[in-house]
Every structure is written in C-alpha cells, then in structure tokens.
C-alpha cells in the first residue's frame, strides 16, 4: 500500500460515518455507525449477519467492500450513488482495504461518509451528466496502434475535431469506432459540453422519434413533456451509432435538423434551437448503404463531410503485439497476475487468425487466456480459446497437451501434475533434447533443468 493511500485511509478514519469489517465470507465482524442515518441498526443487531442482509440495496457489483473482497485491491475515496429501498438517493465517499495474510484475503475494512448535505453544484452537474450518458472517456492517446493507416486516420480526425463539420465513420463490429468518436469530441471546442451516444439499432423503431426529438404532454397516451436527445446534447456532440438502422422516414427529419438547427417535439408546434455536432457510424460499407437504400443520399452527403473507414484487425496485423501488451498490462492488474507477454507460437496463431470480431474479440481472447493460464510467465497455445486453434489449423499441434484433472487433488497439486505432463510431452516430442524441449515450453534451459530435478525426472 502506497504512502499516499495510507494518508487517505487515516483521513477516512477521522471523517467516517460508518466503519465496518467483514470476513472472507462477507459476514460482518465489526460495525460502528457513528452517523449511519440510512441504516439505524445497532452493533448487536448487525454483527454476524451477511453484509448484503444489512445493506440489501447493494450487490457484489455496486458494493465497494465486496469489490475489494473479490479483487484484493484497496479502493480509496470512491464516490458512490446508492438508491435505497424507499427511493432515497444517497451520495457517499467510500474507502475499503483488504486484510491479508500469506494464505490470501481474510476480510475487508470498509469506511464510508455521507456527502448528501455537502454535494457541490459541480458534483450535482456531474451526476446529472452521468445519468443521461452525457460523458465521453477516451482521448486520441488511448488508441493503441502502430499501423500506418490508423495513424493517418488519427491525424485526419485530430484536424477535423477543430471544426464543427459532421463526420461519418465506417468500421466492422468490434473495430473500436467509439474510441475515435469519443476522442473527436474530447479534442474539440465542445469537449466541456454534453456528449450523448445512442445506438440506433438498440431502439424500437416506434420509439426512435420521441427519443431523439422529445414529446409534449398528451401527444400520445401516457406521454409527458420531455426533451429529446438533440435538446439534451445542445452545445455538444451527439453520436448516432449504427445510423444504417434508422428508418428512412426518421432520416428525413434528421436531415431537417442538420439543415436548420431546430427540433420540434412530437405533438408540439414550438421549435427549439439546437446547436449540435453529429457524428455517425455504420458497420456496413458506405457504398453498400447507398446501393441497398439503407441511407438517404442527401443525408449521406450531409453526414460525410468527413468520412473515414477504420481498418479491421485482420488488415492491421502489425498491431497484434502492441495490443496484446496493452491488454496483458490491463489484465495483470485485474487478475493480480504477472504475465510478461505472448509465446512465439501464440503470436503466429494470432497473426494467422482473421479476427472477425476485431479488437473486441482479441481483447476477449486475451482475457480468456488469463483465466486459463496456470500462472505461467507467458500466454501459451493451450491458454487461448480452442475455436481459434481449430480455425487456424493449430489444434492438432497441441493434442498432446490434453490433461485430465484429478478431483481428489488440490488446485496446486493438479497444476504440478499438469506441468509434469507438459514436460514429459515436450521431452518425448524432441527425443529428450533439453534445448528443443525448453524452447517448446517457452522456458530457459536452466528452468527446465530445475524442474526436471524438482520432479525427479531421469533422462537416459
């Protein structure tokens, strides 16, 4: 734990309203509610009970204490907004840190103080932005690439970000279009204004118009006076993802908004001025959109003042290693591992595979490898999903790696047996050649000699 975190934890103890200690099974061992106005229980009523029984409005995803219990990583001064069973909204600042010994996590110390009464105007505005998805989180510096075409696109979009021209982006599913869109907004003069992202394919067609343009009270059964997304995005940017899913009739109304900068709510006569930059994306090639009449020609030309095509991962294989390093670094933190990189055989498999799901699929593959890895220093072929091995014709090369775990053995003992199995297979395949076997196992000769001695192997 860093000195900085220690300082914040000491401060949290002084300012806290609640101190709670839970064990590794999430049962409360200690509870002191100095000022827990939302949970008026005494210590004797709480100790020994499951944490989620005392705080039923939380779960394993939303609770700071349970997150720390799951990850083993301290959380310091984490803002949290909770909705109580009676509808009350609670703003708090939470700190939690794990209690550990050499065997692992013993429990968690959880500290919290209520800030409802001192929430500043700026914090309230930030909360409002979060509720309406008015935020963008990526910068151009977050786009990981060595590919010349992607770097050219980044340079083009950095120039385009300075102006208010509309932008149309094509990219296959999973290619990372949203990173580019967020980056454009954050590099523009509108960066401090709202950013609203809406996937057009995710909205029922009969609700699209009211969502985008708003409603007046009584315009249809149950309707209320409500702003649409274009009004909420006023001054900022609206991102229309998969615009090819928008009905042609609604595209005509969108065209009018682009032309005159005004919207009219459903059922209303009044027009509202709106100053928005529109960025749209499609997962179908632009020529195909026009040829299949999925987008109006006049809207296409108004939207594609700037248009770019994000290359799929199969066309930017020079990004494989740098993306792998990036995701490995992320997952090392998430899973508390120390994997250094990918095995040379894995690199060849990655370069051979076509990645139809693009960067998103590649990230999921690395995550799966982390879960499957037996804490080795590198990701190896047997760690990656089998369907990738099969599609690249690599599965047959690793049949000798199949291993059946023994239920009566512990995880640690099974890992030892697996390691012995792999060493035996490598030695057999190389005719007991230490150098070649070590290379197949992606370890040094000395490491292999140490393991041979450890497991009592006797070579002829």
From TrEMBL:
The keyword Transferase does not apply. Residues 143-371 form the Sigma-54 factor interaction domain. SUPFAM superfamilies: Homeodomain-like, P-loop containing nucleoside triphosphate hydrolases, PYP-like sensor domain (PAS domain). It holds the Pfam family PAS_4. One of its GO terms (molecular function) is sequence-specific DNA binding. One of its GO terms (biological process) is regulation of DNA-templated transcription. Coiled coil: none annotated. Keywords: ATP-binding, Nucleotide-binding, Transcription, Transcription regulation. It comes from the Bacteria. This is Arginine utilization regulatory protein.
């Amino acid at each position: 734990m860093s000195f900085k975190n220690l300082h914040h934890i000491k401060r949290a103890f002084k300012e806290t309203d609640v101190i709670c200690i839970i064990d590794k099974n999430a049962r409360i061992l200690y509870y002191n509610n100095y000022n827990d106005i939302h949970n008026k229980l005494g210590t004797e009523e709480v100790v020994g009970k499951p944490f989620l029984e005392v705080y039923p409005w939380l779960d394993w995803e939303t609770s700071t204490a349970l997150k720390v219990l799951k990850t083993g990583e301290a959380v310091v001064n984490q803002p949290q907004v909770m909705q109580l069973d009676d509808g009350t909204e609670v703003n708090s600042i939470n700190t939690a840190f794990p209690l550990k010994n050499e065997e692992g996590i013993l429990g968690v110390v959880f500290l919290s103080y209520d800030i409802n009464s001192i929430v500043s105007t700026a914090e309230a505005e930030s909360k409002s932005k979060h509720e309406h998805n008015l935020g963008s989180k990526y910068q151009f510096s977050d786009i990981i690439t060595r590919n010349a075409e992607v770097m050219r696109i980044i340079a083009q979009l950095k120039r385009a970000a300075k102006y208010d021209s509309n932008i149309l982006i094509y990219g296959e599913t999973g290619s990372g279009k949203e990173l580019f869109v967020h980056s454009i907004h954050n590099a523009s003069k509108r960066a401090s204004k709202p950013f609203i992202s809406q996937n057009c394919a995710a909205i029922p067609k009969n609700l699209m118009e009211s969502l985008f343009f708003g409603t007046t009270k009584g315009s249809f059964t149950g309707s209320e006076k409500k702003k649409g997304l274009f009004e909420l995005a006023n001054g900022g940017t609206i991102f229309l993802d998969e615009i090819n899913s928008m009905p042609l009739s609604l595209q005509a109304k969108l065209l009018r908004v682009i032309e005159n900068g005004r919207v009219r709510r459903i059922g209303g006569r009044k027009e509202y001025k709106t100053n928005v930059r529109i960025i749209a994306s499609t997962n179908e090639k632009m020529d195909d959109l026009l040829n299949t009449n999925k987008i109006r020609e006049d809207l296409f030309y108004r939207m594609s003042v700037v248009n770019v095509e994000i290359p799929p991962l199969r066309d930017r294989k020079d990004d494989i290693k740098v993306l792998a390093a990036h995701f490995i670094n992320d997952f090392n933190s998430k899973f508390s591992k120390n994997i250094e990189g990918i095995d040379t055989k894995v690199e060849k498999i990655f370069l051979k595979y076509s990645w139809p799901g693009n960067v998103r699929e590649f990230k999921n593959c690395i995550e799966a490898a982390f879960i499957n890895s037996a804490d080795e220093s590198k990701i190896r072929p047997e760690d990656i999903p089998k369907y990738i091995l099969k599609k690249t014709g690599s599965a047959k090369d690793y049949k000798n790696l199949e291993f059946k775990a023994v239920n009566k053995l512990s995880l640690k003992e099974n890992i030892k047996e697996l390691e012995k199995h792999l060493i035996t297979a490598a030695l057999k395949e190389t005719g007991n050649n230490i150098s070649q076997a070590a290379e197949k196992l992606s370890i040094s000769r000395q490491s292999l000699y140490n393991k041979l001695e450890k497991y009592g192997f006797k070579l002829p």
